[in-house]
Sequence to fold (196 residues):
Amino acid sequence: MFSGIIQELGTIIKIKKSPRGLEMLVAAPRTSRRVKMGSSVAVNGVCLTVAKKSAYALQFVLMQETLERTTFARVRMGNKVGLESSLRAGEEMGGHFVYGHVDGCAWIMKVENVPGALIMTISASHDLLKYMIMKGTVAVDGVSLTIMRLSRGAFMVSLLKQTLELTSLGAKRVGDEVNIEVDMINKFLMERCALK
Fold:
């Protein structure tokens, strides 16, 4: 489990297809010191297992299911990725409960600079939007954000300068794809209510 607070901005330095799936090497010296082989790390919001590690990099193997559900099928060397190691007992819960189980992908429709922030409008399918509520939470590329507005086919979030500097969202442009994980509590409540 994660909190949606990115701890390090890593760089993809190697991608290779293998019989096991897509092998991805990420330069991440801070995260590498914190985790061990077999640890879970959220990479742009996707919970991945550390297959190998060195003092400065982590290797992950992405299965076909992961490639089909996330933006990683279109990843390239040099891409920046937000990293968060799993929560430990007693750590501050700064964002919201994020599981690293991506619900789907969405696209950035609009980016607008306003005083002190950047407003990002993200186009999403009905299957994602139906679990979102105004002032609720959503994980976009693993970043815990508050939904400031909902409209037909899209939602809006406000990004502070610090968020843009410390996460992969700072490099995103109109038309770019992002991983979306809806709030699990909303999803659970809505699914349970639908069964009644």
